[in-house]
Specification:
Elements: E1 2-6, H1 8-11, E2 16-20, E3 30-34, E4 37-42, H2 69-75, H3 82-90, E5 91-92, H4 100-107, H5 111-118, E6 123-124, H6 125-134, H7 152-168, H8 182-202, H9 205-219, E7 233-235, H10 239-249, H11 257-261, E8 265-270, E9 276-283, E10 286-293, H12 302-317
Parallel strand pairs: 5-6
Antiparallel strand pairs: 1-2, 2-3, 3-4, 7-8, 8-9, 9-10
Helix pairs in contact: 7-8, 8-10, 9-10
């Protein structure tokens, strides 16, 4: 025997959940449906996005009311609470990718994430996406950087800006503590770029060589290029070249030693027809185009950008 619960008013899209009683052949097994049919199911104590034990029918009867005390004691181990239910009710959803449902469930069990979200006036799925992507550091104004209109491209830009700002500040999280808007993040990033490049330009080549030796001792050998270069494009092949690229182009790529060492990022440079710095990023073991920037973070021409995209896509297919 199974009880049915309509979650449409809570989640703002058509969805029903059937939950088998605790004394059935499949105790607390649940199945969810939308207007087109079955969409998911789970076993005992596996929550369908909302904790099962918060469910109640139209008459106000809760699933847990009929449970023996011993079963309720086990159920209490689940991350269900009235405050969590209130938070989920405030969460505006958008279209989900298949793997995001589990990410949302995991995020709703992270107490640091919940502490931020409970104090934010308007919650959207994009706030959870941001938290899951950056993971840390967290600060009071972080959730102000996104809203329901934030695109995937803008989300990637935000994550890179946070990463680069931290790198140039020597991982000092205090540089982000007062950031409450994208404009403030951009301004802080630009101040650090100016300071970083001013210090780097004052260094003699000999000093940069000393710093490159320190990076080699810290990270080991410089990684091998992931894509085969073509005419006009060449990979940076040493820690010294990474520092020199930042000094020459007057942007923050010289601070990318950690993501480069971790194999998350690789840097190429375009010599002609334009002078550009190109970052590739590794996602799911595949190298994709990250950023393309000219001197002082200027934007590339559409022609150069299209050429670079075709190079990355062609190499990936080969």
């Amino acid at each position: 025997m199974a009880d049915q619960y309509d979650l449409g008013q809570i989640l703002h899209y058509p969805i029903r959940v059937e939950v088998y009683s605790w004394d059935s052949r499949h105790p607390l097994h649940w199945v969810s449906y939308n207007d087109e049919g079955r969409i998911a199911e789970g076993l005992f104590l596996e929550p369908p996005a909302l904790p099962l034990f918060t469910l109640e029918d139209d008459a106000g009867r809760r699933l847990c009311d009929a449970l023996p005390e011993s079963v309720s004691a086990v159920a209490a181990l689940m991350p269900a609470s009235k405050s969590l239910v209130r938070l989920v009710r405030r969460l505006a959803l958008s279209s989900l990718l298949p793997w995001e449902l589990e990410d949302i469930h995991t995020a709703l069990q992270n107490q640091e994430y919940l502490a931020l979200m409970r104090h934010h006036p308007y919650l959207h799925l994009n706030h959870i996406r941001l938290l899951n992507r950056i993971r840390g550091p967290l600060w009071p104004g972080l959730l102000n950087l996104v809203d329901e209109h934030t695109s995937a491209v803008e989300m990637s830009w935000l994550c890179r800006m946070i990463r680069d700002t931290l790198a140039m500040a020597g991982r000092n999280e205090q540089v982000l503590a007062g950031i409450h808007s994208r404009e403030a993040l951009q301004a802080q990033h630009d101040r650090l770029v100016e300071r970083f490049n001013r210090a780097n330009s004052r260094n003699s080549e000999e000093k940069r060589q000393d710093l490159a030796k320190e990076l080699s001792e810290e990270h080991g050998d410089y990684p091998k290029p992931p894509l085969v270069p073509i005419d006009g494009l060449e990979p940076l092949c040493s820690w010294l070249e990474l520092l020199e690229e930042g000094a020459t182009m007057r942007h923050c790529v010289g601070s990318y030693d950690v993501p480069v060492a971790l194999g998350e990022v690789f840097i190429y440079r375009m010599i002609h027809p334009e002078r550009l710095t190109i970052s590739l990023e590794c996602h799911n073991k595949t190298w994709v185009l990250g950023e393309v920037r000219g001197v002082c973070n200027s934007s590339p021409s559409e022609g150069a950008l299209d050429w670079i995209r075709r190079w990355v896509n062609t190499d990936r297919r080969s």
